[in-house]
Amino acid sequence: MKIQSSHIILFGILSSFFNSFSQEIPLEKLNVDLSPNQSLYSKILLENEIKGIIVKQFSITNKTLEEQLDGGSKFVYLFVKGTGIVSIKENTYPVVPESILLPNAFKNLSIQPTKNDTLHFLRIESKLTEQDILDLEAFPTKNIDKVYFKKFTDCEAYTEPIKSPNTVSRTILPNKYIPRIAMGTVQTTGPDKVGAHEHGMLEQLFLGLNKNNVTVFADDARIKFPEYSLLHIPLGSNHSVTVDKNETMYYVWMDFFRDKKGEVWLETHNTLSE
User: Fold this and answer.
1) Residue 43: how many other CB atoms lie within 10 Å
2) Strands 202-208 and 192-197
């Protein structure tokens, strides 16, 4: 009996040890409540979660942010709250919540919020590998030279087998603009879900948009995913998303493929004509 009791105790200790290292779903909330005397806020989010990817939040009030971008990287700006103007050379782009901008070949730009408004946005930097630089040479010229700017609602809609007919999905950044990257939105009202699936060929971030209030599952882990937060799906995990009755599911997915062959995953998206 003593031996059996010792085994039970040892099993309990080992279970506690391994459970302490159980998989978690990394999440970080954006700061969208600046103090009255604060004109600029910036912070790197989920630092070092994905190799070669740097996500930085900016919030600006009554201040112009001048950006001089690194030529060894590509950049995506996601505007999530507030309004303003982006100026690139002689052109201006009126940004509103839920819009996307790629400077592409242009490395200097200024971002100015509307007077007495606070503009909140993310800047996603993707450091280019040697293979990325080679792949860019085969991309359509208009995709890499011209500024890409769109409201999410103006982007192409698609369906997907893992989503219900009530879900509205849009591709806000197709592939072949930045090597190994694509982005889109998912929007629906509960009760609804994105079915369980896994993709070991890509890293994925979720950005919660206005009123998003869902639960994300990844293998045995689960987490509440609120609006204005950034979440990292653990690589290769079997994951899904659920939304309760009368609640909103509305988030951006960001796919960071490990190599260009993995982009075959996007073929599960069936484009809709609107």
Assistant:
1) 13
2) unpaired
